[in-house]
């Protein structure tokens, strides 16, 4: 389980492995953590402040968690760039559970994973 402090602690290793390339999008994967959404987004905003990353994304965040992430980042002068979620012609839940509508409203990109439904 991730903590907000782990974001800053583990970032140097990630940065080293990706060198010399810049990190354009840095994502918080999976919504479950030992820290609040707000604490995690503040840690991500610190990386933006330091110009270590160019954008913040999340993965598998519900509408409510996505809104909380966006609110926290907006308070720091940034915006949530993306939410990576399962989305395909066979799995269209985000059209009904509020994620897609909220993403459109908040100008957050949806990154579809398993767009071919893993070959089902």
Strands, count: 4
Biggest sheet layout: 4 strands, parallel
Q: Largest sheet, order of strands side by side?
A: 1-2-3-4
Shape label: globular
Give the mean pLDDT. 93
Strand content: 15-25%
Helix content: 40-55%
Multimer state: single chain
Query: Structural class given helices, strands, pairing?
Result: alpha/beta
- In DSSP terms (H or I, runs of 4 or more residues), the helix count works out at 4
Q: pLDDT below 50 for ≥5 consecutive residues: which ranges?
A: none
CA radius of gyration: 15 Å
Q: Determine the N-to-C terminus distance.
A: 31 Å
Order of helices and strands: HEHEHEHE
Structure description:
With 120 residues, this protein is α/β, with parallel strands linked by helices. Helices cover 41% and strands 22% of the residues. The protein has four helices and four strands. The protein has helices at residues 4-18, 37-49, 63-75, 99-106; strands spanning 23-29, 53-59, 80-86, 109-113. A four-stranded parallel β-sheet has the order 1-2-3-4, covered by helices on one side. β3, α4 (99-106) and β4 (109-113) form a beta-alpha-beta unit. The relative contact order is 0.16. The mean pLDDT is 93.
